[in-house]
């Protein structure tokens, strides 16, 4: 049984006694977070009332916090941040069949329309009508309570803590990338950028059978953590040439697969140059520039396959199964813990302390760790 479960009190609320508001951490404008009472939407028959227990802060939360936008997504009105989360079921609608009061859940933060061409193909991450938490104009779940559809709540096994469960959101990105690439047993993989997405992509690549996993980053903490998670080689980009090191490690052939998770222009170009002939590359990291020059002659000569990765689809259940087998390993990613009242301090920690912090957790209700 996850040790934190005993500390969680479940409010005495039913679908018929739903409060009108809940307390949330709201981004009013850049660098301005305020605790407010925010509306709690009415429950549909297939909805579930969830008490949010833990929320992991993401790089996208930081971008909205310090710049007010990511690409075309612009914060035009107050926004509740947070989308990497877990909680406990408080009440269920009349048509909910999968969950009951007291169930512990991970929350997949995107709800597609279910009817468009991409949804019908199973590619619901590409739904043009996606309602994704903390992506303007849709609120996230740095809130005490949320109402959410049952189909995007996933029961947790007893050995996964609420904090580890929050990691399933960034982990699902790495699983999706590994699936698209077709990583297979015995393969060689480069993963550049050791933020939480890149670190968890190591676990995904291992699960798909990769035997050599080379990682690169500029921070020692992140490289050390990567080795603990299963990377075979770690390259500090401040100390050596990434491309030269990869060619040395692969006898000049390059890697079979690359996952670029840094969003750094140089990293995106190096990931391409590190591919072997016939290699495949997945771009996860989003650069701050409008475009990145890529070596087209290299692509044609090497017959490379390149994928853009946008979130994930149908990966949440798989992620939970893999996390359940690696709980002690992924605990190393959890570095900082804050109550909801200190959300702004938590965002500053995430924004400014890349050398000392990996995943920062905010507790909208009881603070389980300090």
UniProtKB/TrEMBL annotation:
Keywords: Metal-binding, Oxidoreductase, Zinc. Pfam families: ADH_N (PF08240), ADH_zinc_N (PF00107). It comes from Periweissella cryptocerci. Residues 32-362 form the Enoyl reductase (ER) domain. Its cofactor is Zn(2+). Signal peptide: none annotated. GO terms for molecular function: oxidoreductase activity, acting on the CH-OH group of donors, NAD or NADP as acceptor; zinc ion binding. InterPro entries: ADH-like_C (IPR013149), ADH-like_N (IPR013154), ADH_Zn_CS (IPR002328), ER (IPR020843), GroES-like_sf (IPR011032), NAD(P)-bd_dom_sf (IPR036291), SDH-like (IPR045306). It comes from the Bacteria. This is NAD(P)-dependent alcohol dehydrogenase. Belongs to the zinc-containing alcohol dehydrogenase family. PROSITE patterns: ADH_ZINC.
């Amino acid at each position: 049984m996850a040790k934190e479960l005993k500390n969680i009190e479940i409010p005495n609320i039913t679908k018929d006694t739903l409060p009108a508001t809940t307390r949330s951490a709201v981004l009013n404008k850049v660098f301005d977070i305020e605790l407010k009472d925010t509306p709690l939407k009415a429950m549909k028959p297939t909805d579930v009332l969830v008490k949010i227990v833990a929320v992991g802060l993401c790089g996208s939360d930081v971008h909205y916090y310090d710049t007010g936008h990511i690409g075309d997504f612009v914060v035009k009105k107050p926004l509740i941040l947070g989308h990497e989360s877990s909680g406990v079921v408080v009440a269920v609608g009349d048509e909910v069949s999968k969950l009951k009061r007291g169930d512990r859940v991970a929350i997949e933060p995107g709800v597609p329309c279910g009817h468009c061409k991409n949804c019908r193909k199973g590619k619901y991450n590409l739904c043009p009508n996606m309602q994704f938490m903390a992506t303007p104009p849709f609120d996230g779940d740095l809130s005490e309570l949320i109402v959410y559809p049952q189909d995007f709540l996933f029961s947790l096994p007893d050995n996964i803590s609420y904090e580890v469960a929050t990691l399933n959101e960034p982990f699902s990105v790495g699983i999706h990338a590994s699936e698209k690439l077709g990583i297979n047993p015995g393969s060689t993989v480069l993963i550049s950028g050791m933020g939480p997405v890149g670190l968890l992509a190591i676990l995904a690549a291992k699960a798909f059978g990769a035997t050599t996993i080379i990682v690169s980053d500029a921070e020692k903490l992140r490289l050390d953590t990567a080795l603990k998670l299963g990377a075979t080689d770690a390259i500090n980009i401040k100390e050596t040439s990434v491309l030269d090191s990869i060619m040395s490690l692969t006898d000049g052939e390059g890697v079979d697969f690359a996952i670029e998770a840094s969003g750094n222009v140089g990293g995106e170009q190096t990931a391409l140059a590190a591919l072997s002939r016939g290699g495949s590359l997945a771009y996860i990291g989003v650069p701050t520039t409008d475009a990145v020059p890529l070596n087209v002659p290299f692509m044609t000569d090497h017959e490379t396959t390149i994928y853009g990765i946008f979130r994930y689809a149908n990966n949440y259940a798989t992620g939970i199964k893999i996390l359940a087998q690696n709980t002690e390993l992924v605990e190393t990613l959890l570095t900082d813990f804050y109550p909801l009242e200190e959300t702004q301090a938590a965002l500053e920690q995430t924004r400014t302390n890349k050398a000392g912090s990996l995943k920062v957790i905010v507790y909208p209700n009881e603070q389980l760790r300090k």
